[in-house]
Specification:
The chain has 155 residues and is of the alpha+beta class. It contains 2 helices and 9 strands. Strands 2, 3, 4, 5 and 8 form a 5-stranded antiparallel beta sheet that branches.
Length: 155
C-alpha cells in the first residue's frame, strides 16, 4: 500500500511539473537574421537589407553599417568602431544582439565581436556601436564580415 501511495505522489508531482513547464514564460520571441558583406575600405555607410524583425504593423531594423577606423595605419592592434544605424517602429523597446564574425578569404573565422542593445521605440534612426580591437596580423587577413542579429521582443 505504501508503494502505491508513493508512486501516486510521484505521478502527481510529475503532473504538476508538466503543467508548470507547459505554461509559457513571459512571451519573449526571438528571430535570427544574418547578412554578409565585404569589409568597407572607407568610412561610408553600407546598406543592410536582411537585419530586421517585423510584425504586421512594426519593424525593428538595422539599415546601415559603417566602419570608422580609430587607429593609425600600421598600428597594432587595429581599433575601430562598427556603427550600425537602427530603428524600431514597435510601441515598446526591443532587444537585439549583434555578432560580427570577421572572415578571411576562405571564410574562416578570424575574430568575433558581440554586443547587445536596447532598441528604443519611436521610429527615429539611432547609431549603435560595436567596438573592435584586433591584432594587426589578423586584421590583414580579414576580407568579409558576417553580421548576425538576434532580435528579442516581449509581448
Amino acid at each position: 500500500m505504501r508503494t502505491i501511495s508513493t508512486s501516486m505522489a510521484i505521478i502527481a508531482s510529475l503532473g504538476t511539473l508538466f503543467v508548470v513547464s507547459a505554461q509559457p514564460a513571459a512571451a519573449q520571441v526571438m528571430k535570427v537574421a544574418a547578412e554578409s558583406l565585404q569589409v568597407p575600405i572607407d568610412d561610408e555607410p553600407r546598406p543592410l537589407h536582411k537585419l530586421y524583425y517585423g510584425g504586421r504593423t512594426w519593424i525593428v531594423h538595422f539599415t546601415a553599417i559603417a566602419l570608422h577606423r580609430e587607429s593609425e595605419p600600421g598600428a597594432d592592434p587595429v581599433r575601430g568602431l562598427w556603427i550600425f544605424t537602427g530603428h524600431s517602429t514597435r510601441p515598446k523597446p526591443a532587444r537585439a544582439q549583434l555578432m560580427l564574425t570577421l572572415l578571411d578569404e576562405n571564410g574562416a573565422t578570424v575574430a568575433t565581436l558581440k554586443k547587445s542593445f536596447l532598441i528604443k521605440s519611436g521610429g527615429d534612426a539611432r547609431p549603435y556601436t560595436v567596438e573592435m580591437e584586433v591584432p594587426a596580423a589578423d586584421w590583414a587577413r580579414v576580407e568579409r564580415v558576417k553580421i548576425q542579429g538576434n532580435f528579442f521582443v516581449g509581448s
